[in-house]
Design brief:
disordered C terminus, Beta-Lactamase, 8 domains, six-stranded antiparallel β-sheet, single chain, about 25% strand, alpha+beta
């Protein structure tokens, strides 16, 4: 029984282990299968899938694009792409250089392994130059990778690495939303622990308001219409906070191509949503406040010239009241400067200077300025207030005072009749605004009449307790009658007096009442009415102080007599603000008439009335209220008073104010506009109105215009466009502006700017009203400006191309100079032979970017000049011509006579072969040459031959600078060939001498003389080669110095005019020229080393090191370096070369130091058999292993980063010095830890072999 139970237990355990293993790997294999589709392509890095042999089986679209950019033919093996790369090493975050290219890549994470029948790997890398931004989908080899992935097995560790190292939140769920895997970023968004997320349902984290959308979305995703969806929705994290997220869903299929799971990629979008809501609310509040102001407001930006002096203004914004007051449309001025707005105004410069002076005055006074301004365009007077809210900004508030000024002018004509009157005479408009007061007022009251002109008559100095029924007065005056009343007026000395006031209407020619005349006679007597009113106020005081509702007491004319604290707080006023104000002053205009009718009803009946009304708050907004009103005092001796209880219906309600008389005055004002103004009725399809400018423009009378359909005035080519604009206006309820060609009566067309707004009737668009402005001149200017802009752009592009071309040429010159220098370095070696010359030709070919380089020698035979090829080097794939029998002996007379003529004039042969003479072209074409450059070689001022450069692939012409450099190189080759010839002759002479010594000793003296002559010639050749190094140094440095100087002058003078890209080009060229100058200088030093056998002197090496340290003391102190050495030997050596040797090694140790580490150099010496072993050790950055084998070659700098100092000549000099002292030099280094240089010096160089320590 126990065995049976144990067996069942073992079977159960094995079953669950198999289930878990199978399920996990089934999910992973399904994920792997989908790597060949959209998920692999969504990875930002370049991705390769390779097998154990390095064969590329799959690459995502980023890798494909990378290969398209940098690799001509798509390679199948990674070893053809990467240098020094092995797939089983740790190369995370390491850079690799592409083969045969300077491009670099960066591995972003460890390679991942597939384990199955074979071993595979996924490689992630980035292009460090970031030359492409857009992702391009290029799918290939789909069937091959699909078959491979079906056999592959993905390890759990590798799969998790993809998730864990992703910066974006990623999770995998099953088809019902249950979470299978999630990375840390995903858990952080939900504020959950990662291990607790497993097998939770992702749908539970979706906000309840989005769950219905989420369910529908899952159904659509699982239907298989698309494999990837993107959506924004809200998630609820562990703390209950709602998080807006941008989510990408990717459907994952199993090996049977059935949907099995879903990949989620989530980005937190909460901050973005909050910013959008806040921005929308602020914008809405600002626009509402700005547009609902009573007065016109313009917001301007001050523009300044290069010296910071204001020279213009730009319109940032205007409100509706500004449009109405100035007859401008907002879209016509926003974003434009005053010069553009006033383009056709002859006085525009004067106007701009005026407003700029206002800005300067505000800046100087540091406060707001108020002034009056007359605008000639609108022929109106404006009262203006200007202030500066911030630097280079100005607000202007305007109100129309034209009517006031007009009335003042008219009243001045009547002044002669009433100026001498003994009674007070006052003239007001129909709203009781005072326009004139005669001098008698000043004599009677002692006040100045100027203090009251422009104010309302009911603000006149009088006893405020005596209320005048202005409504009754208006009723009398409307009937043409004179109204009278007793008033108690106030003198300036504070005393009261009673007057009889007579008010009469003044009519215009049409018998329309336009003004009131008021005559006041002094009838002073006492009244007691104020005492009764004061007692009534005391009775109401308690109610005012305690009532939780707004209360106001008014007289029958609507003057506010008293308000409580609640009322004041509700509207934002103080009691002093409402003193002497009428309720109409703080009433919405649309509600005023309704309130007047209710007050009239209160006069007849003592009923309580209830009505809604909008009050004007102090901050300029309106407050909707519910009012209960009733009479509270009435007697025969006192006028009736009214009490109102005001209840707030809404805290914030914004109302727009529109100009009520716009429709009535539209036609009157439009006649003043210098443009076509029209009105069209859509229902009847006709023109209802057009001003005189429009009639003159079209050439029709108004009676003729109304008979023509409006669309016929538009040119045929623009009619369809205008119909679409009108239909869009009717649909979207927006005004529009459009350029259109209009047709006159004489069939001529003109470019016009059409601006139109809809006309509403019963909330429906019944027509449109608009203007037509002639923009023919503007169109012509715009066309000229666009042409000028195109020309400037073309010039700028041309200049950038020239600079880029100059940079490319300089790089070519730099490479050519470097190649010439390296070739010359080979020729300077004492043991020059054929291989050395061939090696120099190879370096010269790479530098000149040609396919073949060769040297021909001239010779005479039977008085005829021939050429024969002596040396050659050619690129792989180019057929060599060194064994061409035709070139072994080729006569100049047979087609190349032109060449020898030019060579004798010290000129080169260059050009495209197809353009050469027929007799030359035949021979050159057979060698596969497309372009050629041949430079003569001179030896002892005679044409020895020539050096040729063949380009077999491209047709090209060499620049004069390139040609001159190659001519200079030809001189070097001439000297080297001559030296080689002399050495061969010398060797032949030695052999000949030996033969003659064996046979005829009597000729020994003669042969010794010949030997001495050849030896002198060899020494002379060596001397010429050394002198040539100085000459070539000067010839190469001079043009580089000129280029560098001119580039620095250009950068200094054009800094402010150059774009960043051009400045970068110039800086690169300056650095390149300076680096080449340093290389040439080091080459000169290298060539001047004297390596002849000489008599060495006894030197104290300790003294030599001490002298070097003293000479480098400023540099050593600046770098905080420490030089340590103890016992040093005394040996035979060359003093100058020993100083140079130790100076180069110490300088290297200090120069290549580690960051944040002080350099430390230790020098030791040890005696061996017949030589001394010296060791120079530093703690610098070290040398990479791959650079150690050729570190002593000239111009080798190891790591070729531009930020490292040096030219690569110093260690080559050290090697030469050690070799001249019969020693050897080598190096040991660990990259990142330091370097040890070892070298030996022979102790057999002097007469004395015994050396001692100093």
């Amino acid at each position: 029984m126990n065995q049976l139970i144990f067996f069942i237990f073992i079977v159960n355990v094995l079953f669950w282990l198999f289930f878990i293993f199978f399920r996990k790997n089934r999910i992973i294999r399904s994920f792997v299968k989908n790597l060949n589709s959209h998920f692999l392509d969504d990875i930002c890095d370049c991705v390769l899938i390779v097998n154990q042999k390095g064969r590329i089986l799959k690459k995502n679209r980023q890798a494909k694009l990378f290969f398209t950019q940098f690799i001509d033919e798509d390679p199948k093996y990674t070893e053809k792409i990467f240098n020094n790369y092995h797939f089983y090493k740790n190369y995370k975050n390491k850079r690799f250089t592409l083969k045969d290219s300077s491009k670099e890549i960066l591995l972003t994470q460890e390679p991942l392994f597939f384990l199955g029948k074979r071993e595979y790997k996924i490689i992630f890398f980035k292009n460090t130059e970031k030359v492409f931004d857009n992702q391009i989908l290029l799918l290939e080899n789909e069937d091959r990778i699909k078959d491979f992935l079906q056999d592959a097995f993905f390890s759990e560790e590798s799969f998790k690495a993809v998730f864990d190292e992703a910066a974006i939140a990623i999770a995998m769920t099953d088809l019902e939303g249950k979470i299978i895997l999630a990375n840390q970023s995903f858990a952080s968004i939900l504020q959950e622990k990662r291990h607790e997320l497993q097998f939770k349902n992702f749908k539970d984290f979706v906000f309840s308001g989005d769950r219905l959308i989420d369910e529908n979305f899952y159904k659509e995703l699982l239907s298989g219409k698309k494999k990837t969806y993107q959506i924004e929705k809200r998630l609820v994290n562990h703390s209950g906070k709602i998080v807006w997220c941008h989510i990408t869903y990717s459907l994952i299929f199993n090996l049977k191509n059935q949907p099995e799971s879903i990949i989620l990629m989530i980005e937190d979008a909460t901050q973005k949503k909050e910013n959008e809501v806040l921005l929308w609310e602020n914008e809405k509040l600002y626009r509402s406040l700005f547009q609902n102001l009573f007065y016109g407001v313009a917001y301007l930006e001050i523009l300044k010239d290069e010296k910071g002096i204001p020279n213009d203004m730009r319109m940032i914004d205007v409100n509706q009241a500004f449009e109405n007051l100035t007859y401008t449309m907002r879209q016509d001025v926003i974003g434009k400067t005053l010069k553009e707005v006033l383009e056709f105004d002859p006085k525009k410069d004067e106007i701009i200077r005026f407003w700029l002076q206002i800005y300067e005055n505000i800046n100087e006074l540091k406060k707001e300025i108020e002034f009056e301004y007359f605008a000639e365009i609108t022929q109106k007077n404006y009262y203006c207030s200007a202030f500066i809210p911030q630097e280079n900004r100005m607000f202007i508030l305007i109100s129309d005072v034209s009517e006031t000024r007009k009335k003042e002018k008219e009243l001045r004509s009547l002044s002669s009749l009433i100026e001498q009157s003994f009674n007070t005479v006052i003239i007001t408009n129909i709203k009781w605004k005072i326009e004139y007061i005669n001098p008698a007022f000043e004599k009677i009251t002692g006040f100045s009449r100027r203090d009251f002109i422009g104010d309302y008559f009911y603000h006149f100095p009088s006893d405020k307790n005596i209320n005048i029924d202005y409504e009754e007065a208006v009723n009398f005056l409307m009937k043409g009658k004179t109204w009278s009343a007793e008033v108690r007026s106030l003198k300036k000395d504070g005393t009261f007096f009673w007057e009889m006031m007579y008010v009469s209407p003044l009519l215009d020619a049409d018998e329309k009442m336009i003004q009131f005349s008021i005559i006041k006679n002094d009838i002073t007597y006492k009244k007691l009415a104020e005492e009764s009113l004061r007692q009534s106020e005391e009775k109401l005081k308690k109610v005012f102080d305690t009532a939780p509702i707004g209360i106001a007491i008014l007289d029958k004319l609507g003057q506010i007599l008293k308000t409580n604290h609640f009322f004041n707080r509700m509207l934002g006023y103080r009691s002093e603000d409402l003193k002497n104000k009428y309720v109409s002053d703080i009433t919405h205009p649309e509600d005023y008439q309704k309130e007047v009718e209710l007050i009239r009803s209160l006069k007849k009946d003592n009923l309580v009335f209830q009505f809604e009304k909008r009050y004007l708050k102090k901050d300029g907004t309106y407050l909707s209220t519910l009012i209960y009103a009733n009479k509270i005092i009435y007697s025969e001796s006192l006028k009736p008073l009214y009490i109102a209880f005001i209840q707030d219906l809404t805290e914030k309600k914004k109302l727009s104010i529109r100009l009520t008389n716009y429709e009535e005055k539209f036609k009157e004002f439009s006649e003043l506009f210098p443009m076509v103004v029209f009105e069209i009725d859509f229902q009847n399809n006709k023109v209802n109105y057009v001003n005189m400018n429009g009639q003159e423009f079209f050439g029709y009378s108004f009676d003729d215009i109304v008979k023509i359909k409006p669309i016929l005035f538009v040119s045929e080519e623009d009619r369809r466009k205008i119909r679409k604009k009108i239909l869009k206006m009717c649909k979207e309820h927006f005004a529009f502006s459009e350029e259109v060609k209009m047709m006159r009566k004489n069939k001529e067309t003109a470019n016009m700017l059409l601006q139109a707004v809809p006309i509403y009737k019963e909330r429906k668009i019944q027509g449109m009203r608009g203007t037509l402005i002639d923009i023919s001149i503007q169109k012509e200017k715009q066309s000229k400006l666009e042409n000028r802009q195109i020309i400037l752009t073309e010039k700028m592009i041309h200049r950038e191309k020239e600079l880029s071309k100059t940079s490319e040429l300089l790089n070519r010159y730099e490479n050519l100079l470097k190649g010439i220098i390296e070739a010359v370095a080979d020729l300077l070696s004492p043991d020059i032979h054929r291989d050395k010359i061939t090696s120099a030709l190879k370096k010269l070919a790479f530098a000149a970017q040609v396919d073949r380089v060769y040297i021909f020698e001239n010779f005479f035979e039977n008085d005829e000049l021939f050429m024969t090829q002596r040396f050659e080097w050619c690129q792989e794939g180019i057929e060599p011509q060194i064994n061409n029998p035709l070139l072994k002996k080729l006569s100049y007379r047979e087609g190349f006579s032109r060449w020898i003529d030019l060579f004798q004039k010290n000129q080169s042969i260059q050009g495209i072969v197809k353009d050469f003479p027929e007799e030359e072209r035949k021979t050159l074409s057979e060698q596969g040459i497309s372009s050629i450059l041949a430079v003569p070689i001179y030896i002892d001022n005679k044409i020895w031959g020539f050096i040729g450069f063949d380009d077999c692939k491209n047709e090209r012409l060499w620049q004069p600078e390139e040609e001159q450099m190659l001519i200079t190189a030809a001189y070097a080759f001439g000297s080297a060939v001559n030296k080689n010839r002399i050495e061969q002759e010398l060797l032949f002479s030695y052999q000949k001498l030996e033969d003659k010594v064996a046979n005829r000793t009597e000729d020994l003296y003669e042969m010794n003389l010949l030997l001495k002559k050849k030896t002198d010639e060899l020494n002379h050749s060596n001397q010429e080669l050394t002198e040539y190094a100085s000459i070539i140094s000067h010839d190469l440095k001079q043009p580089l110095l000129t280029i560098s100087n001119y580039l620095q002058i250009l950068k200094k003078k054009m800094t402010s005019k150059l774009d960043p890209k051009t400045s970068e080009y110039i800086q690169i060229m300056i650095r390149s020229s300076i680096r080449m100058q340093n290389m040439i200088e080091d080459l000169l030093k290298y060539s001047k080393l004297d390596f002849k056998l000489k008599e060495f002197k006894l030197l104290d090496i300790g003294s030599i090191i001490e002298e070097v340290v003293m000479g480098m003391k400023p540099f050593i102190l600046d770098k905080k370096a420490l030089i340590h050495y103890e016992k040093m030997p005394v040996i035979y050596a060359d003093r100058t070369q020993m100083i140079q040797l130790f100076q180069n090694l110490i300088n290297n140790g200090i120069k290549f130091k580690k960051e944040n580490t002080d350099p430390r150099i230790e020098i030791e010496a040890k005696k061996l058999n017949h030589e001394w072993l010296f060791t120079v050790k530093d703690n610098g950055i070290g040398i990479h292993e791959k650079y150690l084998h050729d570190i002593f070659q000239i111009f080798n700098r190891g790591d070729k980063k531009d930020d490292l100092e040096g030219t690569g000549v110093g260690l080559a000099v050290c090697k030469k010095i050690v070799l001249s002292h019969k020693g050897k030099i080598w190096v040991e280094s660990i990259y990142g830890e330091g370097t040890i240089f070892h070298f030996t010096l022979s102790d057999q160089l002097g007469d004395e072999n015994e050396n001692t320590f100093s």
